[in-house]
Specification:
By secondary structure, the protein is an alpha/beta fold. The protein has 3 domains: about 1-150, Rossmann fold, CATH 3.40.50; about 160-280 and about 315-325, no CATH class; about 340-405, Orthogonal Bundle (Rna Polymerase Sigma Factor, Chain: A). It has 15 helices and 11 strands. The chain has helices spanning about 10-20, 40-50, 60-75, 90-95, 115-125, 135-145, 160-165, 210-215, 225-235, 235-250, 285-295, 325-335, 340-355, 360-375, 385-400; strands at about 1-5, 30-35, 55, 85, 105, 125-130, 155, 185-195, 255-260, 265-270, 275-280. Helix 1 (about 10-20) links the parallel strand 1 and strand 2 (about 30-35). Bound molecules: NADPH dihydro-nicotinamide-adenine-dinucleotide phosphate, 1-deoxy-D-xylulose-5-phosphate (DXP) and manganese (II) ion. Catalyzes the NADPH-dependent rearrangement and reduction of 1-deoxy-D-xylulose-5-phosphate (DXP) to 2-C-methyl-D-erythritol 4-phosphate (MEP). It holds the Pfam family DXPR_C. It is an enzyme of class 1 (oxidoreductase).
């Protein structure tokens, strides 16, 4: 049985990861769970149902969680298990550090806060099944330095999972058990699909007064609120462009976003010979999560496949960069590298929270991020401390621009 440490277990990715594990009895053993601590009832239920010995939460609520777990054990008649509950800002990274090198750490934490857990997971030598794109975007050079071997990161983000699958064609480094992507010289472009979000087709002027509720109505995916808002501004695709640049070591200009409203084609690779490989399934994160857990093996019957018994069609259209300027910014930021992507991500996190709190308009999100990025002088990042200082500056500057008290 493969050991799994699941970070962000109470979220959209976390709960779907446990669904995959539950549907594959005997294949996985969950040895640690982590969460922020906002949903202790669910976390306690997960800890009991999956007999998890280590639970980590950011908030100092160990006693409450312990009580809920005991109650749950009594209610369900499950045998009591000796467990440790870790709390604090480093709890999740500590949970990641418990994973053995043959195991897999799934990082389903939301936001740049997940970076220390990503680094800690890499240090163990375990596979890192990475959904938490912000940690890679913010900490690119550090993530690279902590990676123990090529292929240690298996992308869970649907687009990057698709590209990762498609890249198994082409040249591969020899002598490694896991196929490693080194066929870049044969790659002309990565095709990064985007649903277009709930405001696809709208012009900039139409977006002035859009509400949080409207931004949360994603047309094709049910996800956590932050990634859903990011999809509505196309900042999710902006983060994903940088994520693809870092994961697959391709020039930002060689990554082409395209709007595909149905979200059945999850992305792909255009090869030098003119051949285009795309990966498709009805929208479901279960497949990329399952691949993260078992790569390079595929589990059976993870999610429904495409059904060709009825007629249907798939559409594609170019991105409207005037209405949605996030991708143009991301290209520039990806080329700058160093501290620039961390600044973009940190400013976006502040602006998205301000939008959710009705303290910033929809267009103000990307406008604020651009302004903070424009003011930032990019520096090289070699230490976590340097990154934290840059992020602190970006957060404060975004707060100032938005008129928020720091
Ligand atoms: N949802 C999806 O379909 C997809 C998500 N992603 C990416 O995956 C990541 C997770 O997204 P999603 O599942 O939607 O987000 P959610 O908001 O649904 O879940 C976030 C999870 O992270 C936990 N968390 C927050 N802060 C901490 C912390 N400091 N330490 C430990 N855990 C913490 C939350 O705990 P609590 O409940 O206690 O707050 C929750 O379990 C994001 O980076 C997102 O961009 C990528 C592709 C698709
Ligand atoms: C499922 C997934 O990977 C999300 O990141 C998704 O891509 C969001 O949809 P958008 O294409 O609208 O950003
Ligand atoms: Mn995605």
């Amino acid at each position: 049985m493969r050991e799994v440490v699941l970070l962000g277990s109470t979220g959209s990715i976390g709960t779907q990861c446990l669904e995959v594990i539950e549907n594959n009895p005997g294949k996985f053993r969950v040895t640690a769970l982590s969460a922020g601590g906002n949903n202790l009832e669910l976390l306690a239920a997960q800890a009991v149902a999956f007999q998890v010995p280590t639970i980590a939460i950011e908030q100092p609520r160990a006693d409450e969680l312990g009580d809920l777990i005991r109650l749950r054990e009594q209610e369900t008649g499950v045998a009591q298990l000796k467990r440790q509950i870790i709390t604090g800002t480093k709890a999740s990274a500590q949970a990641a550090a418990t994973c053995s090198a043959s195991g897999v750490v799934v990082n389903g934490i939301n936001g740049g806060i997940g970076l220390s857990s990503t680094l800690s997971a890499l240090d163990t030598g375990a596979t890192l099944a990475l959904a938490n794109k912000e940690s890679l975007v913010a900490g690119g050079p550090l993530v690279n330095a902590h990676q123990q071997y090529p292929g240690q990161i298996v992308p869970v983000d649907s687009e990057h999972s698709a590209i990762h699958q498609c890249l198994q064609s082409g040249l591969h480094e020899r002598g490694l058990t896991m196929p490693v992507v080194t066929g870049r010289s044969e790659v002309r472009k990565l095709i990064l699909t985007a649903s277009g979000g709930p405001f696809r087709g709208k012009k900039r002027a139409d977006l002035v007064d859009v509400s949080v509720e409207d931004a949360l109505k994603h047309p094709t995916w049910a996800m956590g609120p932050v990634v859903t808002i990011n999809s509505s501004t196309l900042m999710n695709k902006a983060l994903e462009l940088i994520e693809a640049h870092l994961l697959f070591d391709l020039d930002p200009e060689a990554i082409e976003p395209v709007i595909h409203p149905q979200s059945h084609i999850h992305s792909g690779v255009l090869w030098n010979d003119g051949s285009l490989l795309l990966q498709a399934s009805p929208p479901s994160m279960l497949i990329p999560i399952a691949l993260g857990l078992s790569w390079p093996e595929r589990l059976s019957d993870v999610a429904p496949a495409e059904d060709f018994s009825e007629p249907f069609s798939w559409d594609f259209e170019p991105v409207d960069h005037e209405a949605f300027p996030a991708l143009t910014l991301a290209r520039q930021v990806a080329k700058q590298g160093g501290s620039a992507p961390a600044v973009m991500n940190a400013a976006n996190e502040v602006a998205v929270q301000a939008f959710r709190d009705r303290k910033c308009g929809f267009l103000g999100i990307v406008d604020t991020v651009r302004q903070v990025c424009d003011e930032h002088q990019t520096v090289a990042i070699t230490e976590l401390q340097e990154l934290l200082e840059v992020q602190t500056w970006a957060v404060k500057r975004a707060q100032q621009l938005l008129g928020l008290s720091a």
